[in-house]
Write a structure and sequence with these properties.
By secondary structure, the protein is of the alpha+beta class. It has helices at 9-13, 72-93, 142-156, and strands at residues 32-37, 41-46, 55-59, 97-101, 111-117. Strands 1-2-3-5-4 form a five-stranded antiparallel β-sheet. It has a single domain (30-156), classed as HIT family, subunit A (2-Layer Sandwich). The relative contact order is 0.20. Bound molecules: zinc ion.
Length: 160
């Protein structure tokens, strides 16, 4: 993968051709399994076997690039969801530390990567070497992913 900004950056920041805006919010897709949702937020436990418990929080309201574009009520909904899911991930996976990465450099639509950090970790004491997914990542086996997703849904009060 070449290192550059997306060529359609100007459109993407306006929500034109935005993959996250176009999502039908499925229960499960090629990226992962949804473990929690509100009217405007989804939490998706990732299939990519990058780090145990790696989860994306995705804003599902209108297209937003920067979190400061949210109204106070939307911001509260978003960040409370981030905290709610982060706490459940900490309790379930028992990592040393949770990392919260709100980047949007390859998909400029508001989302936050929750990356649990463990004693045995690719970069102890440093930022996680998170790369954009290109589909070539090793996958968490389906039965393991769903077992974790079911336990997390229960912990998060999501009965979907
Ligand atoms: Zn969008």
């Amino acid at each position: 993968m070449s290192i550059s900004w997306p060529v359609d950056w100007a459109n993407l920041t306006q929500g034109i051709g935005c993959e996250m805006c176009n999502s039908s919010r499925p229960d499960s897709d090629k990226y992962g399994v949804r473990i929690f949702s509100t009217n405007n937020v989804d939490a998706v436990l990732q299939r990519a076997g990058i780090q145990r418990g790696y989860t994306l929080i995705i804003w599902r309201g209108r297209h937003i690039t920067e979190p400061y574009e949210l109204t106070d009520a939307e911001s509260s909904d978003y960040w409370r969801s981030v905290m709610h899911v982060a706490k459940a991930l900490m309790n379930y996976y028992q990592p040393l530390k949770m990392n919260y990465e709100t980047l949007g450099n390859s998909v400029p639509h508001l989302h936050t990567h929750l990356v649990p950090r463990y004693i045995k970790d690719p970069a102890p004491g440093r930022p996680f070497p998170l790369l954009p997914q290109d589909g070539s990542e090793a996958k968490v086996p389906d039965d393991e992913l769903w077992e974790q997703a079911r336990a997390l849904r229960k912990a998060l009060g999501d009965t979907a």
